[in-house]
Amino acid sequence: MERQKRFEKLEKRPVHLDGFVKNWDDEGLVALNGKNDPKPSITIENGVVTEMDGKKKADFDLIDKYIAEYGINLDNAEKTLNTDSVKIANMMCDPNVSRAEIIEYTTAMTPAKAAEVISQLNFAEMIMATQKMRPRRTPMTQVHATNTLDNPVEIAADAAEAALRGVPEEETTTAIARYAPMNAISIMVGAQAGRPGVITQCSVEEVDELSLGMRGFTAYAETISVYGTDRVFTDGDDTPWSKGFLASCYASRGLKMRFTSGAGSEAMMGYTEGKSMLYLEARCIYITKASGVQGLQNGGVSCIGMPGAVVGGIREVLGENLLCMSLDVECASGCDQAFSHSDIRRTGRMIGQFIAGTDYLSSGYAAEENMDNTFAGSNMDVLDYDDYITLERDMAINGGIMPITEEESIKIRHKAAVAIQAVFDGLGLPQITDEEVEAATYGSNSNDMPKRDMVQDMKAAQGLMTRGITVVDVIKALYDHDIKDVAEAVLKLAQQKVCGDYLQTSAVFLDGWKCTSAINNANDYKGPGTGYRLWEDKDKWDRLENVPWALDPQKLEF
Amino acid sequence: MSEVDDLVARIAAQLQQSGNASSASTSAGTSAGSEKELGAADYPLFEKHPDQIKTPTGKNVEEITLENVINGKVDAKDMRITPATLKLQGEIAANAGRPAIQRNFQRASELTSVPDDVVLDLYNSLRPFRSTKQELLDTAKELRDKYHAPICAGWFEEAAENYEVNKKLKGDN
């Protein structure tokens, strides 16, 4: 065949590096409305669920049992199941129906009913519904701070810069697992140097992660995975009862936590029971609700390639975020894994959440160059900062990341680097040199950093655990080096763990350690003129108006 | 278990707690004279009712200052949430329409007095194929008797029954 020249050019576009598949329902490669998805139903006898979504109690797997026991408000269940799904969907995107009224229905649905309701909404209606159903009034986002060398100075500097840009939560992980305690301390100190009040986490294996929290090195956790089929849940080395218990372990130490789930994880792990991604995700969301966990990170997350490959997959991803928020659960709405080679398509992947606003638009905007993102790259990274901010400015949307000047960046990165240098000295960790402080201040990725002795760092990281170091030692190290403001910030963070305010739904700290959540900053959207409006948030509006690359037309010389 | 046994277990738990620096004493942090349940208007607790927040050693939360950390009056064992504070936060959650969060905090409240390494072991024992039914039931008894944690004990008993039916006990894999 003689090639058609336009088709030849199109084939070379980045979008053709992405993977796409046609539906295969029996293997779960279907976004929603799978041919094997159960029909919604519930039978309640003497206050006990004896049948749900076409399955008798005797046939329940652990997930069914857990949801039937703890996940559904049975008082409203029969009424809800008997209400037309189109009607419930209509209420969700109708600004005249209050959020509270809808929650009476959504918390009384079965997973199959929930999937049926969400499936009624088109993409625009999902955006409408999401801006009303988000629990916290003010939308925000979260970032990653990592690098491939686990360089502590760079983690601290990147964490500080992101904090100054306005994020309330930051997450790190490790390239090499044994670095975990060191990375956890580096992101914590960096974030507190950037803006007191930012909470930080370190994503590692469940027991290790809790152990870091117990020492005061982290303030929250979110990589507590739940799954929609029994087999995959077991392969993930947990059950609903172990994960529910783990949730309580975190709360018992005053640590905020959220679960993680997302479309495609069951397909990726090979056991979907032939069900659609949305139905399986609905089960995960009800497990989260059942556990009394305040929040969930969902929306494809690290398996975004699966929904991204099937027809309507990105609509499903917004739909699962919406369902999470509609159950009155805090939502960190994915956008945290490299999604597409196409810049147009990766913008499209996040645009629904971006326009509507979620509790955290991204559960990990890369606060480092993607080459340094040890979560395997994020949908957006630091080199997208100015594009992203310009989109916020163009559309008058608070996407959670604000502009700063180059001078502000240099100043805050230096401050964080000096603080972590002091902590390493105070804790007897391998020295951080002045040369490293300078490199982290002016650098952009780990190639800009002098190489460290990684064997010594790894030994020292393990020593933090065996020596019984806690956050108190970190505070003293900062104080002894006369870095009292950061010492004070780390202390305030520890103090807040005694108070428990930030265990509530969608809670984060504003300036001055003011705790804001779905309790005292509840979403009150009821149509035009209500809810969060960027132009009423004066500080952020001013920052976007005055981006460093906007000219002042009144001062131009022609 | 008889009432006497229950009483002995309670006293033993209290003694164990008062002797364990990292534990929450049952008396610390109880709100003085406040019988009314808290709601959204009482939130954030740190701003609205700082007087009601105590540390596990009975200090007021506002005594957690840099000065007191440096001079050693406050240390890591003060920087923990107490059962009393989790109860208040549970009331706030439930009264704001989130009763499941309150139930989670009730389990958590019982775990505040369980040492860190025991908590980690408890979690691991609930993972699939880790425990026999009898081991889970023994753990439940220990939670009830030694740590006075009846809600968590019930959680383990429920898991034991369900793991047996759904084949998640040790040896089922």
From TrEMBL, chain A:
Residues 3-554 form the Diol/glycerol dehydratase large subunit domain. SUPFAM superfamilies: Cobalamin (vitamin B12)-dependent enzymes. It comes from the Bacteria. One of its GO terms (molecular function) is hydro-lyase activity. InterPro entries: Cbl-dep_enz_cat, Diol/glycerol_deHase_lsu_sf, Diol/glycerol_deHydtase_lsu. This is Propanediol dehydratase. It comes from Secundilactobacillus collinoides (Lactobacillus collinoides). The lineage of its organism: Bacteria, Bacillati, Bacillota, Bacilli, Lactobacillales. The gene is pduC.
Automatic annotation (TrEMBL), chain B:
Residues 16-42 are annotated as: Disordered. This is Propanediol dehydratase. Residues 18-33 have a biased composition (Low complexity).
